[in-house]
Amino acid sequence: MGFWHQLVAPGFFQSGQVQAALVIGSVVAVSSAVAGIFVVIRGQAFLGHALGDIGATGAAAAALAGLQALWGFLAAGLVGGLAVDVSSRRARERDVATGVVLSAMLGLSALFLYLISQASGGAGVTQQILFGSIFAVDPALTDPIVGFSLLSVALVALLFRPLLWSSVHLEAARARGIPVGLVSLGFLVAVIVTVEEAALVVGALLSTALLVGPAATAIRFTGRVGRAMLLAVGLGLLDVWLGVLLSYDSYTWPPAGRGWPVSFFIVAVMIVTHGVSHVRPHRRLRAGRAVSEPLG
Amino acid sequence: MDAPNPAAVEPAIAFEAVSVAFGRREVLRGLDFAVAPGSFVGVIGPNGAGKTTVLRLALGLVRPTRGAVRVLGQVVHRGSRALGYVPQSLAAEPDLPLRARDLVGLGLDGERWGLPLPSRTRRRRIDACLERVGALAYADEPVGTLSGGERQRLLIGQALLTDPQILLMDEPLANLDIRSGRAVIDLIATIARERQVTVLFVSHDVNPLVGVLDQVLYLADGRAVLGTVDQVVRSDVLSQLYGRPVEVVRVQGHILVFAGPDVVPLEHGELAAHGRTRSTAGHA
Amino acid sequence: MSGIWNAVFPPGLFTNPLLIHLWIAATVIAVVAGTVGVFVNLRGDAFVAHAVPRGAFAGAAAASLVGANTVLGLGVFAVVMAGAIGMRRQRRANPVDVALILVLALGLGDLFLTLSQAYAPLVFSLLFGQLLGVSATDVWLIGALGVVVLVAVGVVYRPLLLASTAPELAAARGVPIVALNLAFTVLVALAATLTVPVVGALLAFSLMVGPAAAGWYLARTPGRVLGLSVAVAIAVVWIAIVLGYDTNLPIGFLVSALCLAAYVTARAWRWASRKGRSRAGAGAAGSEPLAVG
């Protein structure tokens, strides 16, 4: 019992702040994990990460214009994501195009934040936009966040099979009449919605972490997309819950009274679980079948 | 040249004066041929001759600049389930969370929207298909851990699941060793025979296919000639096709085509069966 | 006339000692980033170029926590990240691994910042760069490190070029692939260490991506691409210094905007020249850029 109180400090579940953080964090973790599986399969981790940063530019612009940050995130994400999509028709151009768009958007971000700090003199907005904090989520955002998460998950579910086929073999999918361009665009929208809402409530850092981490760990444990998705959702929830719990506990840790950032804990839990997946013998090394045998 | 049996039967695939140009470059020039249903046709030719373009035309992925392509009597449209397409190869990381049976299953309903629902009929059909292509033993393995030959069997299975009347094979031998290649050819020939399927089999070398081919569609420089191996792979016919002297030699059952200054040695110590007309990699 | 001159180039721009330091440091940075950027583009590893300086930010935060030199912190973190990313056989870094290493570094950075309660303007300048932060010691440090990077590039230039364009061939020739992949990421780390204090952690990669990408669109041989990339990078930082001094806008913004302008101009130029050529009747074959990525 003493240990339990050490781990789950008294008041943890009563704190309204903690409750809101757990709800929002869970919602974001679920939609990130679902989209994340395909992000990992398609090798789009850079784009997924870049979208978080790109959204922050929109948030800075929104702050400057006095608009809601959520719309800033979404608008910038759509603009940036489509810019990458249009400027990288050929696969080998994709990362460089992503880099160029990201660099342009981050440059604008620097400009907007500079203008904000000129206008208000405070650097608090900078910190908040760049790092975000799950404990500082505006309760009024809960409904739109839940709505957008559902939208993203529904899009991935709708596109599931054509998306899987065009991720595995683009030409074969195209030959069967799948509109591969439309499918990839639809998935991009799902990723944008998920990443931007995550960047808004948990920061650009955690949006990348929750998108890539649980999915990358999950696919090392199972050879099936559906199961990998469920496992990733579970891992994402585990990361968020343990992270929030440890962060709450850390208020009693040195330096006293300040608390350690929740993003650190969420990432730490994630890296540890991912490390475990590497310790476990990889399924490709499973004994019992000669892989090199030409034909069964 | 016309198909040898231009009887009342509707041709499976008919090219009517088809030309294709990419920008200013003309890839195919006035292709005119008809493939009879149930025949096994090898699409043979050097790199850049337009073999893959012929396949993509039949699939509706490329539109002819001039002329028309008819498949089973109809103007071709993309995504027809009567056509099974077998791509050259499948690249997959070992981490890809996709089992052999999942890959094959995409051929059944991979173009449908929404989540796949587990069903006993679906599973039975996929199992039967895996068994038919001899892939049941590794049905539950991740595709990223399978060999090139094993993956090729899965791709064939994927194409067979819609019970297509026509199979289009895009250089399936390109990444296989001789033994796996032989097995793939035998598998396709057997399936074609038992299901009365028309096969267009793209290959840059005619030799591995000689025993199973009904006809050869020989392409060079954007033009083509269709007929049996003996009718087409001859010095006079190919010289006319290439528009310059070409020599066809048979050595110990191997057909060698000298169409240029160079005879390209293939891997595995085989001699290439034809020269190259250009040194460019072509559009392929 | 002299009024305009003085407005664009105010007195002191070339005489103020702090600005002289900046001119020298920025030029070294441009040469290094432009050079390393050629390989970043050739390998398509823009993510690595972004992640290493971005994550190295945590090193600066750690340094400010323990009271050490922030550039040293940057360098140590950058090289450690590079080591973790670079130990691989594949030519391109696995984006998942890069992302995980990046979020780990950022999570640590967040922790260090919270614990050290770093002064917000310091954070801002580390993220977005600052014009007047280069001291006399820094100039020597940046110069020396710059020379080290350029000499290292000179040593590994040909094998790295081969390993970046034709890894199988390189392996067959006995080129040590893993060592070269590691060398590449460490070069990125060193370039990042130089660039971050001036341009900022968020935008350091602009100089490693934009100018070289423009170079690949305009030239066909690696040597010419290298020359163009370095020239564009130098032009970018010089113009950015002048504009930054005139307008007080953040240098990171100016650098990224100029890099974008160079990239867009190069792509438009290439598109226009290809269009002109195909109208003139010359074949389009062979006009692809040489294996970018």
Topology, element by element:
The complex is a heterotrimer of chains A (296), B (284) and C (293).
Chain A: H1 2-7, H2 16-41, H3 45-65, H4 69-87, H5 94-120, H6 124-131, H7 142-168, H8 170-175, H9 180-218, H10 225-249, H11 262-279
Chain B: E1 13-22, E2 25-35, E3 40-44, H1 51-59, E4 66-71, E5 74-75, E6 83-86, H2 100-109, H3 120-132, H4 148-160, E7 166-169, H5 178-195, E8 198-203, E9 215-220, E10 223-227, H6 229-232, H7 235-242, E11 247-251, E12 254-258, E13 263-265, E14 271-275
Parallel strand pairs in B: 3-8, 3-9, 6-7, 7-8
Antiparallel strand pairs in B: 1-2, 1-4, 4-5, 9-10, 11-12, 13-14
Chain C: H1 2-8, H2 17-43, H3 46-66, H4 70-86, H5 95-116, H6 120-128, H7 136-165, H8 167-172, H9 177-199, H10 204-218, H11 222-247, H12 251-280
Structure, explained:
The complex is a heterotrimer of chains A (296), B (284) and C (293). With 296 residues, chain A is mostly helical. Chain A has helices spanning 2-7, 16-41, 45-65, 69-87, 94-120, 124-131, 142-168, 170-175, 180-218, 225-249, 262-279. Chain B has helices spanning 51-59, 100-109, 120-132, 148-160, 178-195, 229-232, 235-242, and strands at residues 13-22, 25-35, 40-44, 66-71, 74-75, 83-86, 166-169, 198-203, 215-220, 223-227, 247-251, 254-258, 263-265, 271-275. Chain B is globular. Chain B starts with 12 loop residues before the first strand and ends in a 9-residue tail after the last strand. The relative contact order of chain C is 0.17. By secondary structure, chain C is mainly alpha-helical. Classes of the chains: A mainly alpha (296), B alpha/beta (284), C mainly alpha (293). Chains in contact: A-B, A-C, B-C. At the A-B interface, helix 7, helix 8 and helix 10 of A face helix 2, helix 4 and helix 5 of B.
